[in-house]
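Table 4 source record.
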Amino acid sequence: MLLSTFLGTLASFPLVREKFRGKGFLNTFIVSPMIIPVIVVAVAIYSLFSKTGLVGSKVGLVLGHSLLAIPFVVITMSAALKGFDVTLEKAAMSLGANHLQTFFKITFPLIRPGVIAGALFAFIISFDEIVLSMFICGISAKTLPVKMWEGVRMEINPVIAAVSTMLICLSVILLSLVEYLRGRAERIRGSS
């Protein structure tokens, strides 16, 4: 979640604010893991990671999940940045703030709901991913969805039903939080 939120936020700034050759291609490339079926992405990642020794490692699992979650962060952050008034940054810089101060005192507080919503989407996508996890996971790194899948296939266990209920409740809470943040961002944009 943290890696995909950082990289997705970083990628969305030039995609929204800059004009350069190949911008449409780059945007399509970044969003492509969202469009391509997960099984195709999982096979491609498995092929790449098997050559680099990342299959079965936690680093490989984090990188694979980040690759699937980055498009959701980019889309969320692009929407947040399109509604951002750049003149606020220009005003801060004209009053003597440098780029770093402007980002942390002006830009980040206004796009924070978008960053949090993107992070929540990244968490949900990563938490729910089973296909990629089954390809990348080894014995040492197993996610909860993989454990649940194995539990359903091997035995009928009431623990699976209890965990499923908790996951449904967690999903409802996270989606409610995303909706709250979206409404808050709309109110902030409306007041500024």
